[in-house]
Amino acid sequence: MSNTIVELKDVYKTYDDGFTALKDISIKLNQGEFYTLLGPSGSGKTTILQAIAGFTEVTSGEVLFDGKRINDIPANQRQLNTVFQDYALFPNMNVFENVAFGLVVHNVKKAEIEQRVHDALKMVQLEKYATREISELSGGQQQRIAIARAIINRPKVLLLDEPLSALDAKLRKDMQYELRELQQQLGITFLFVTHDQEEALAMSDEIFVMNKGEILQKGDPVDIYDEPINHFVADFIGESNIIPGKMVADYQVAFLGHQFECSDAGMRPNEPVEVVIRPEDLVITSPEKGKIQVKVDTQLFRGDYYEILAYDEQGNEWLIHSTNATKDDSVVGLAFGPTDMHIMRYNESEAKFNSRLESYED
Hints:
- With 362 residues, the chain is α+β, with helices and mostly antiparallel strands.
- It has helices at 45-53, 95-105, 110-123, 139-151, 169-186, 197-203, 221-226, 231-236, 350-361, and strands at 4-14, 20-30, 34-38, 60-65, 68-69, 80-83, 157-161, 189-194, 206-211, 214-219, 241-249, 252-255, 258-261, 271-277, 283-285, 292-301, 306-311, 317-322, 331-335, 341-345.
- The protein has a 6-stranded mixed β-sheet, with helices on both faces. Strands 13-12-11-14-20 form a 5-stranded antiparallel β-sheet. A 5-stranded antiparallel β-sheet has the order 15-19-16-17-18, with no helix packed on it.
- Helix 3 (110-123) packs across helix 4.
- The radius of gyration is 25 Å and the shape is globular.
């Protein structure tokens, strides 16, 4: 028996002006998992959410729920609920009335409404706030009320459209823990939309990285972070140093005029590549002990590490995270191992690549 609760097959969404918001989207969401759609503004994340919710009609392709096609099923008849970015709470109703709204509309008995509202508020740790007015709540409390209202109807899937974006940094992190814990407690499928990479990495079982209406890569947070499929994903997920090079042979890559052992294979000899090294994988050493040398430009203290900006002789910018400070304008070595490098095929034209490479060698 399939564990898939939501599936999109070959979905396109094109608007009347010719703009294509979604291009050949095919994804599967399993029961009880936390999924995230991650990408910049305009990448198509919310359009996917709206297609699943029934708020927008796809141009072609199928939207399936529990194995059944739901393209023509109205939004209010789908077994899922949505938490919006602005929470969409009713200001003229108190907390209890907001949470109970869906049950009242479906003519649920009063005693059952009271019990289910109590249970939903307890789940979001706001059971003592039932009589409060919405205007008396903080942003974090309003967000929890929106979630309580969404889960009270016992949906099989909960869609969350950037629900943490209006919160301050500390509260946002606190709510990440609470949302993840709530999802595990409920055991239902969450589909979360965000442009915040750290948020996606922290909360998700699986991430779909999007850009320009397409899913570029899908995988668990560790795979997405450690094995980005292309330049966009490497640059968008966390911080990266991305340097052009050539794959000399299996497990051997050349860049900045030197050849290094790496852990990647399966490419053509001398194939143009991009070398990705995360800032936290670089170790500052003395110049003679480093595999490459860079000149420190600036550094910022980030609390538990120093963020150091440096440049090599060819003008490439290097971002380094170190627990130790160094001196501005000093020349230091950078050490890294074979597994600290991730090699990606170069996606731009070879001519453009060669012109960049030649400029480094001059």
